[in-house]
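User: Run a structure prediction on this.
Assistant: Running it now.
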Amino acid sequence: MKIIAHGIDLVDFPRIEDMLEKHGDRFLDRVFTSREQADAAATRNRIEKLAGRFAAKEAVLKLIGTGWRGKIAWTDIEVVNNALGQPQVNISGEVKRIAEGLQVDQITISITHTANFAIASAVALAMSK
């Protein structure tokens, strides 16, 4: 596998809290899949979980070089944990189309938190040819 792109993002928890306060379910439904919302609701640190997922989505958009625009939907990027708790990303829609055009075969992510911030790193991998 060959690394072809990297994206990173930092999100402060008050940003997510403000969006929830101002927009409530509209914000949640626009940005997070139903599974992401359920996963966050099942933890005692809901804001931390949502902020980490938001940062991961931003990191993926940076690695595909687009940012959030055009036909891209936030829910084209879904961040879930595997059985071991490792975050993984599933892409669909416009994000998947763009990633395939860049010959991205896999995206790996890492998320970490402090008391007030979540940071995520995403790496795009391609099969070595």
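The domain at 2-126 is CATH 3.90.470.20 (Ribosomal Protein L22; Chain A).
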